Structure formats: structure tokens, C-alpha cells
Amino acid sequence: MYDHPGATPPTTRSTGARLRRSAGSLAAGAAGAGMLVILLVAAMWAIEVADYVLPGEFDDYGIRAWNLEGLTGVFLAPFLHADFAHLMANSLPLLVLGFLAALRGLGRFLIASLIIILVSGLGVWLTTDPRFVTVGASGLVFGYFGLVVARGLFDRRLLDIVIGVGVAAAYYSIIWGVLPTQEGVSWQGHLFGLLGGVLAAWIVRRKRPALPAY
After folding, report:
1. pTM (2 decimals)?
2. Taking a C-beta distance cutoff of 8 angstroms, is the pair 89, 136 a contact?
3. Distance from CA of residue 80 to its chain's centroid?
């Protein structure tokens, strides 16, 4: 018991300290996440400007299905776009969803991004008509959507659950993009990007300590 006037019980002090550390960590994570995602989108814009100004077609380095040389496009395609309108359509959701995906740490974000790029790109390479070259960051957009929504289910942190529910409510309509409803749009990239995001959420989830066995 504490009889001294004005004294704060240790549990209160420790709880307050944990909350302050958590808030500070989240603020630092938000700053780093925002900077990284802005740089990512800025790089895409710089590449598209270079593609517009310089001779040659950068889009030729996208994903060409069932072509071994086309496998390099798995890693290059997210940074290439058909035109500025295509890039503009991807930029805002990429900024929002990428920022939310990166909130839990840049290391986890980079691992998750690599998983999404691999799953989305290989899925496109295996299922797309070889006559077409696939480019665009929409696989990442769908992947980050899947990551943020699934993270709330796997990590079970209140903030992640709230963010996941909010993202699902705000962006639920993009789910229709995984269906082959529009010619010239890679629904395969959307579908496998979404699956890659869910897989990434599972792989980088918070590991819970094992319960002691008796």
C-alpha cells in the first residue's frame, strides 16, 4: 500500500512509461514510413519522366509471361507505368496504403514489399498471355491493402484492427479489380498482389511468446 500523499503507484508509472514509449515509437515509425513511401513514389515518377524524355521504351522491361528474360520484369514492373495517367491512378492509394503498411517498422515493410512483388510478379508471369507486357504498381497497391487488413487479424493489436477495418471500409471497392472485368488491366497482378499481401502479413506478424508447458 502507498500512504504517502501524491505518490504514484509503480504500476501507474510503468503503464504511463509504456504508453509514452509506444507513442514515441509510433511517431518515429510514422515519420520513417512517410519518408520511405514518398521516396518510393517519387522514384516511380522520376522513372516515368525519364521514360517520356529519353529514347526507347522502358515498359519493354516489364513482365513478359513464360519468357525467362521476362522474369527480370518481376522486380522492375512495379516501377514502370504505361503513361502518366496510369502512374497518377496508382500514386495516391500507394501513398496511403504504403504508409499504413510501413507503420509497424521499415524492416518488416521492406520484407513484406519483397514478398508482395515476388508473389504478384510470379503470378502474372505464370498466368498472363505472353503477347502482353505487364507493368505498374497496382500489384503493390493490392498487396498493401491485403497486408494492412490481414495484419489486424494476425497481430490482434487494437490499433492494427482499427486501421484494418478502416482501410477495408474505405477501399473495399478495389476488390473488384481481382476479377477479369476490364480489358488491358492485369487482374492477375491485382489478385496475386492481394494474396501476397495476406501472405506477407502472416510471415511478418508479431510472434507471441510460447506458453510454458507443465
Report:
1. 0.85
2. no
3. 17
Here the cell at position 14 is 510503468
Percentage of the chain modeled with pLDDT above 70: 83
Other C-beta atoms closer than 10 Å to the C-beta of 207 total 7
CB 146 within 8 A of CB 68: no
User: What distance in Å separates the CA atoms of residue 116 and residue 102, rounded to the nearest whole number?
Assistant: 13
Sheet strands (E) in the chain? 63-64, 133-134
Closest to 117 measured CA to CA, from 133, 129, 134: 134
Q: Is the pLDDT at 87 greater than 50, yes or no? A: yes
The band of 1, judged by pLDDT with boundaries at 50, 70 and 90, is very low
- What φ, ψ does residue 2 adopt, rounded to 5°? -115, 120
Please tell me the distance from the alpha carbon of residue 42 to that of residue 31, in angstroms, as a whole number. 16
Length of the chain: 214
- Half-sphere exposure of residue 200, counting CA atoms within 13 Å on the CB side? 32
Strand pairing category for 133-134 and 63-64:
antiparallel
H helices of 65-156, where? 73-76, 84-102, 106-127, 138-155
